[in-house]
Amino acid sequence: LTTDSRLSPDTTADADSTTNIVPKDIIPTDKSIGFLGLGIMGVPMALNLVKAGHEVTVWNRSQARCTPLVEAGAKQGTSPADVVQHCDIIFSCVSDANAVRDLVIGNTGVLQGISAGKGYIEMSTVDSDTIKEISEAITMRGGRFLEAPVSGNKKSAEQGKLVILAAGDRSLYMDAYSCFEALGKKTFFLGELGSGGNTKLIVNMLMGSFMASLAEGLSLAEKAGVDQYTLLDVLNLSDIACPLVKTKGAAILEGHFPASFPLKHQQKDMRLSLQMGEELEQPLHVAGAANELYKRTKAIGFGDRDMSCVYRAVNA
Ligand code: NA7
Questions:
Q1: pLDDT computed for residue 13 by the predictor
Q2: Residue 230 contacts by C-beta under 8 Å, 6 or more apart in sequence?
Q3: Which contiguous run of DSSP H or E holds residue 155?
Q4: Does the Cβ of 148 fall within 6 Å of ligand 1?
Q5: pLDDT band at 316 (very low <50, low <70, confident <90, very high)
Q6: Which candidate in 155, 200, 248, 298 is catalytic?
Q7: Phi, psi angle pair for 267, to nearest 5°
Q8: Rounded Cα distance, 18 and 244, in Å
Q9: Furthest-apart CA pair in the chain: how many Å?
Q10: Ligand 1 atom nearest to CA at 269
Q11: For 124-277, where are the E strands, in sequence order?
């Protein structure tokens, strides 16, 4: 990657990576920790649990993704059931509702290993019905359940600076607290199951709508003969300056879209927030329009690239 010289160093798409990581002073729980799902978010999250001194056992559907964790000192389980049998508290961070269900109720799934007192923490962003279903399945077998979706991206996961939105079993939240300290800069306990997921979806709906607007603004600038670099400088000094404008704006101008937050997951979150709006009879005009752009970007083959790739559909 050659960064465009017109972008100042702190406004490049990778600018977040220059932030210093301050080591955290964490006393790790002596409970054994399992981690299922080692994707873009799962790998750095599980690594941070190991680095903070937790005893961690990992599992991923594609086994190769376990390698960096095993090299860092984690054990590798043979199936979700195997991890659950050997651990006290198990985290899951997988792509969508199908993956969440497969992990829990599938062959050699979580339900085959769960027993009284064990804790299951779902960090994937999925719909509230799926959360309710797996929570009931786990608690019926004596397990404890917490939802804990996160706000953040690959970089904040690497830096242990996620914002964690926990809800459900408070005793499990307390037992897993040192893990949340390792993963995030702030953990909210939001009460009843569902509050965490709803909060996360609203955050990501706003982010998705704003991202689409930024893409449209930069595209309009190009058509109007307004220098896009100058526009980005202006935005970065304006009242709407924020990390998203800084890093995603730079990604667009560099034409460099490494998946920090995959567009397919942003579109999933737009769809889930629209579903929530429909259930609650809340019109969501702006999010609905933005969702169409993400659907289009996915359809033209950019689902695995970063969400900022929505510019490709806007600027077609
Ligand atoms: P990624 O990078 O797309 O990773 C997805 C993970 O989910 C990865 O470990 C996959 O395993 C796993 N996966 C997908 N389908 C299944 C099934 N059916 N069974 C088991 N495991 C599966 O996602 P991110 O890390 O960016 O995001 C994870 C969540 O956090 C998501 O809900 C976001 O919205 C927020 P694989 O490696 O493909 O074998």
A1: 52
A2: none
A3: helix 154-158
A4: no
A5: confident
A6: 200
A7: -65, -40
A8: 16
A9: 65
A10: 34
A11: 144-147, 150-151, 162-168, 184-189
